Amino acid sequence: MTSATSHHGRRILVVDDNIAIHDDFKKVLAAPGNHTSTALDELEAALFDAAPVATGQREFELVSAFQGAEALEAVTAAVAQSRPFSVAFVDMRMPPGWDGLETIEHLWRADPNLQIVICSAYSDHSWHDLRDRLGDSDSLLILKKPFDTIEVVQCAHALTAKWGSERERRMYTRDLEQAVKERTAQLEELNVRLSNELVYRDRMESELRLAQRLEAIGQLAAGVAHEINTPLQYVSDNIFFIRESAMTLVETSVQLAGAATAEPGLRSKIEAIVEAADLEFLTERVPLALNEIDQGLERVSRIVRAMRELVHPGGRNAVRTDLNRAIQTALDVTGSAFRMVADLELQLGELPSVLCFPSEINQVLLNLIVNAAHAMEGTDGSARGALKIETRCDGDQVVISVSDTGGGIPHDLRDRIFDPFFTTKAVGKGTGQGLAISRSIVDRHAGTLTFESAVGRGTTFHVRLPIEGPVPHVLDAARSRSMQSV
């Protein structure tokens, strides 16, 4: 930072077409070595009522210009070299070039901080004219010729000190503004991070509340599954007993009817009973009916087993899981959601067991299958849709693809489908949590959940999971990605 007493602050420009005026300024203001006169020492002693000041303390550096254009070149060069003038003494009449007023206009455009002293013996311009052209500036003084030497020294000292003070103030203000700008940027960054943390916390709290509700529902479903499974078992056993007994009874009746042919009266009665009971029809249909009941009971038992597997909370540690079996289980539970609107196409490849949290992956599968079914419910209904599920290995990852032939995702909504609580479904049809939670689960497994969609043709979601499961540093990165996406 340059003070008012520094060498830069003492640079003075004299602009006058009279060489004698330049000599006079040098005698009064020039630094030692530029003249041999002691007039300045004597002047300073008289001005400050003290002994003459040592010549080494007079540090004004004078530069001469004889025309306005020459002065402009000097000021422009000084600014470019970071050695600006603090004060310029400018004559008003400098033929044949610019007059003093026009020169000052040019100088202030080149260096707005330059202090100006107008030197003139004539009233070429009124103060009103000067103020109209130069503005109401505190950087402008008027010194009438012939001027007193003391006045020149006073102007030089006062204006260079003022220039230095203003320079310090500008630099301090600039530094202060820069500090405020940097601090503001830091606060804005902290505010963004805090906002992301708050959004992430709200999201985690929402998922925790939902997980707690699902856990409660899972416990209830597990209890219901257990309660249903017991009566199903004895119903199935009794159906087996009735089937065997009924068939034995029908066969016995047929045999009795054949044995009674020797008694005409008894034979006619038995034939009437057989005809009334339609034993031939019962012999054909009863086994079929009992088989259908048995198949229905097996279907219910399978669904109950699937529910018990899906709602099982699992342990704290990831376990090896057969994802193809998990898909079959999810399809058993969600059958009512897609069977009425779509045909199922399975292409399950050979997969190794994957280290994961099976209950969480089951939730992802349920969400994707139900979403696909809902997407196909929105079509015109002219033809059944197609639900396609494919699994395959890709290096050290497994890929699960769930495709539908629904209406696809509009382009303007694709950036929002993973946002919590965002849904395009009708009120009461969805909460907007399924895909958001699914992506969080996949992120925690250090995998990815992506999609491809074509409007009017359908959507495919791809779940990629590492075969060896998530590791701690990958989990931290997944958490960071999750926070950045909220």
Low-confidence stretches: 1-6, 47-57, 473-479, 481-486
CATH third-tier fold name of the domain at 316-486: Heat Shock Protein 90
What is the class of the domain at 316-486 in the CATH system?
Alpha Beta
User: What order do the helices and strands follow?
Assistant: EHHEHEHEHEHHHEHEEHEEHEEH
Structural class: alpha/beta
Q: Could you say what the CATH architecture of the domain at 316-486 is?
A: 2-Layer Sandwich
The biggest beta sheet, please? 5 strands, parallel
The fraction of residues assigned to DSSP E strands is 15-25%
Radius of gyration: 49 Å
Helical segment tally? Answer: 12
| N- to C-terminal distance | 47 Å
Full CATH superfamily name of the domain at 316-486: Histidine kinase-like ATPase, C-terminal domain
Helix content: 55-70%
Average pLDDT, rounded to a whole number, is: 77
What spatial order of strands do you see in the largest sheet? 2-1-3-4-5
Number of strands: 12
The coarse silhouette is rod-shaped
